[in-house]
Amino acid sequence: MLGADAGTGCRGRMPGLDVGTGCRTGRAGRTQGPGRRIGRPDRTSDRCRYDPRMRRVLVVGISGAGKSTLARTLAGELALPYYEMDALHFTGPGWAVDEDFAARVADIAASPSWIFDSFGYPEVRDLLWEHADTVVWLDYPRRVVMPRVLRRSLRRTVRRERIFGGNRETLAAWFRRDHPAWWAWSQHAPRRSEITHRTTNPRFAPLRVVRLTTPAETRGWVRVQIKT
Fold it and tell me: Buried b / exposed e across 194-223, counting CB within 10 Å, b at 16+?
């Protein structure tokens, strides 16, 4: 998921991408076709910074990774309109889905700039990936995401917090397979596999990818975006 800026050197590149102009990736980088590399952001140099073309952004990962928090932060710093996917999807009691959800997302996707906190529901997933210019992937291990999602769901349940469409997470919902905690555990490997596939799929090129594997790595990358 890479974008190229041939002949301009490192300026204007996202960390973690190598398109043959001198921006080094970490040791985990691997080539994906001519001039394409995906890897961890380079910790040894701050030359490869925010790309001003980062205007249509997907923040992806499993439940509990911190997608919404990161998307809101980036939206504020980069002056991008932020859209919370679940708030668009669920709009009424009983987790009712907006009948115009796909059309609304299509309208947003066609606009000049946006940031979503989601991999995308099936009916809009390909559309979003085709329109995105950048994907920020929070690829955290289970040991990081599970405590987060458990704490969040416990808080929502105990405090009876109203979330998307005025709905609540209930005690009964904890025993369902689609509860966030169960989902984060059971879908961790499948979600990583699908994101990996999409990040190397020519269908979605050119697409820049930032793959962050720890919260500390994410904080460091965000600091670079803010300073640039």
Answer: ebeebbbeeebbebbbbbbbeeebbeebbe
